[in-house]
């Protein structure tokens, strides 16, 4: 009985602690409306060099439009025939081979999942996306080259890394 009580206490404490992590700590300097909500009509914050500053807590509460179809806004003629055929096949199979149905991390679809909070930390040389469950993504902005054979991660494959070199800005 003591074990059950200890486990139940741990679960309650963990849930309360997780609930208090980010949402109740508003981003300093973020323009807000009188009711405390972010002012989405205010000018975008800027870094000291004048570039947009993405730092802060982000939330996708706009829906799951792209969750199972990243090409939701494209016409069928915009998509390669083999890709459209694969999409239709996966729809007919109810996504049986998707990472989600195999209890694996979602990969890039992770960002399009509704109600997924994440924090962006931006420095002049790095942007980091930190997710509630401990997953993270680092985007180097200092012009460095990627390794010749990088090890892909669940969140993003090596082909999706973004490198902002001085010549591309």
What is shown here, in short?
The chain is an alpha+beta fold. Helix content is 18%, strand content 12%.
Structure notes:
With 169 residues, the protein is α+β, with helices and mostly antiparallel strands. It has a domain at 2-61 and 115-168. Helix content is 18%, strand content 12%. It has two helices and four strands, in the order αβαβββ. The protein has a four-stranded antiparallel beta sheet with strand order 1-2-3-4, with no helix packed on it. A hairpin with a 3-residue loop joins β2 (117-122) and β3. The longest helix has 18 residues, at 2-19. Residues 13-20 and 157-169 have low confidence and may be disordered.
Percentage of β-strand residues = 5-15%
Q: Give the mean pLDDT.
A: 74
Largest sheet: 4 strands, antiparallel
Classification by helices and strands? alpha+beta
- Residue share in helices? 10-25%
* Ends apart, CA distance between termini: 63 Å
Number of DSSP helical runs: 2
Oligomer: single chain
Radius of gyration: 20 Å
Q: Going across the major beta sheet, what is the strand order?
A: 1-2-3-4
Low-confidence stretches at least 5 residues in length (pLDDT < 50)? 13-20, 157-169
Tell me the number of strands. 4
Reading the helices and strands in chain order gives HEHEEE
The geometry reads as extended
């Amino acid at each position: 009985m003591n074990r059950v009580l200890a486990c139940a206490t741990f679960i309650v404490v963990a849930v309360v602690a997780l609930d208090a992590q980010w949402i109740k700590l508003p981003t300093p300097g973020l323009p807000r409306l009188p009711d405390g909500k972010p002012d989405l009509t205010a000018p975008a914050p800027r870094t000291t060099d004048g570039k947009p500053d993405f730092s802060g807590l982000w939330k996708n509460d706009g829906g799951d439009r792209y969750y199972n179809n990243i090409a939701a806004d494209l016409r069928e003629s915009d998509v390669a025939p083999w890709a459209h055929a694969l999409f239709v096949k996966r729809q007919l199979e109810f996504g049986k081979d998707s990472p989600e149905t195999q209890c694996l991390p979602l990969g890039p679809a992770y960002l399009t999942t509704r109600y997924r909070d994440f924090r962006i930390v931006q420095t002049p040389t790095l942007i980091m996306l930190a997710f509630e469950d401990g997953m993270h993504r680092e985007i180097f902005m200092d012009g460095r080259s990627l390794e010749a054979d990088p090890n892909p991660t669940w969140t993003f494959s090596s082909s999706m890394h973004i490198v902002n070199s001085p010549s591309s800005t």
